[in-house]
Amino acid sequence: MLPLMLRSLLVLTFFSLCSIVHAEIAVIVNANIEDDSISRNEIINIYMGRLRRFPSGPAARPIDLPSSSPDKAEFYHLLVNKPLSEIDAYWARLIFSGRTSPPDIEPDATKVQERVATSPNAIGYLDRKEVDERLLTDKRIKIIFILAAETKP
Amino acid sequence: MIAFHRSSSILVRTALILITLFALTGGLFIALTTSFIRDHSYLRAHTRLEELLNTVEKTVSIACYLADKPLAKEVAEGLMNNRDVASVSIHEDSSGEILVHLTKTVDSANEHHPAWPPLTRIIRSPFAADTTVGNLVLQPDVAEIDREVDENVVFVKNLLFFELVTLGAVFVTMVLSMVIRPIKQVSVQLHSMNAADGEQLLIPHGHDGDEIGSLVTDINSLATDLVAVIREEQTIRQQWQEGEKKYHAIFDNADAGICLLKYDGQILSFNQAFERMTGLAPNTDGHMDLTNMSCDIPNKIALLLTECLLGNESLSEHIKLSHSDTWLHLILTPINSTFVQCVISDVTELTLAKQKVEEVSHAKSEFLASISHELRTPLNAILGYSQLLSLGQDYPEIVKNQAAEITQSGSHLLSLINDIIDLTSIEAGRIELFIEPVSIKSVVNDALTMIGPLAQVKRIRLINEIDLNESVVVDADYGRLRQALMNFLSNAIKYNEPNGEVILSYQYTGECIRLHVTDTGEGVPASQQNRLFNSFDRLGKECSAIDGIGIGLVVAKSLVEAMHGQVGFNSVEGLGSTFWLEFPQGSVK
User: What gap in Å lies between CA B506 and CA B472, rounded to an integer?
Assistant: First the structure.
């Protein structure tokens, strides 16, 4: 009995992992931003604090999800191929001496959408499917980049 | 240095050898170890710096990525805390900006050290491994590293030096306690040992079975042997001194002249008697030479000396000094191949007396020869006429008997005279011999036949044990050999016990054959045996009933010796005597 249960559990875990890998993350910005697309490196620069500007010039303000969000892990995984712990360690190193700071954190996807919709400099990320649904109703935001498993570096 | 080595003790030498050895091996060892430790320490320092770079690489990567000078500075300061680091600089690639450059205050000594190549690390982006974002250059502090290395080297050197010194001290102590101390103990004992009293060395404690123990044992046995040899030597020396004294006592006080000669006749030492007898005096160069002694025969002394040395045996000789009537008797005894001892006695008186005696003896012989001849002539007439008288028919019985007495006495007188004539002719060397091979068997049988009547009269049994055949012969004169044999036989019969025996036997002695005549008489006392072959000496039997004048044995001896044979006898008083005559075996007839 027990080995059977253990096996089904393993299978479940496998499927759930597959779903994460195959998920897509959409990077969204305020619709007023001139740029229609952005490079992955530029997103990295903005999120990791190197250069917080859009290619067209205006300052960029990254918005993050809390560490408990699976979308956050997925985002960083697809973006820089690193687990959250490393990202946390990165920021921990910069807390006392760094001249830059980690992205602002919004508690959930709705708040992120709201923030991006209301702040012209904000840049955030959401699950692709979720974004697609929201875009139907909210024209204040636009997708600027799709992070997909296939496109990861 | 060599003289020092000779005079210095084992301890000093051991210490010197150790110091030399340690200097050589320790120097080499320290050099090798130093080289190894230096290389190793440099490698370690390099590795350490590389590890340091690894540690900070991630942070530097972030600092470069963000062009974050405060972070870079923090990292650089962290690195500068390491004393092996001389300077740190971090460059950011995108703008070519130097984020930070820190340098230690440089000592002036630093410049003397060879510069190490700086450690450069290419810094990659923390998010894209293929993107370079800057570089980190670290200059090691060579002076500091050298100082550390030197500290290590000095520590190891000190450790090695300490170890060598400790080892050396332990070794020297061992040598001191295991070798030098026991040897010193033995040496001190040896100094105070009185080997003559039988003292022995004691083996140092704990060295019973080792080399020192056996050395002491050997010294003890050597000392014992030496003492024995010295005692023997002392005894010999004492005996030699006594002998020397005796020799000097004899040499100085002897009546005989004694001298020591070299092979060439040079006199090395002589006593007073020698000087007195020979009258020799040193010649011009201070030497005395025995060959200078002038004697009746020139070079006689030199010849004697040579003969003595060549034969290596004593010689004695009479010489007459030519300048006087002195006769000397020389005895030369070789001492070795070079020296000869010469003993000289003055025999002038003896020689003159002997000459006189010989003259008298010769006159006696002459007298006897002539008187005997003159006696025999009238005796023939007496014997002839007395025989006629005893055989005549016309005379009364008493006259015949008296005539027979005359004949018997005459015959006896004739035989005595014949014996005397023989003796004198032998002594005068006028005897005539006809030497031929003579069969022993026939001469013995002939003699026995002739002596038979005498034996019968004396009731003596004759036993002939000679069973030789006719072919055994000796070279002799038949009649004279028979005469000699008959003289022995008649003596054996005359001086025998009543009803005694006379045994004739023979014996081979080498190449010779010896005939024995053994009687059962009273024998000859040992004190008189040397007078047995003297003429007219009857050993006290002159007044006995046995007739004779004491020349039978003398005649027999003279005859046998004239025929190149020998005579002799042995006698035990009370048991009898055996007389023998011996001839070389002659060729077969």
Answer: 12
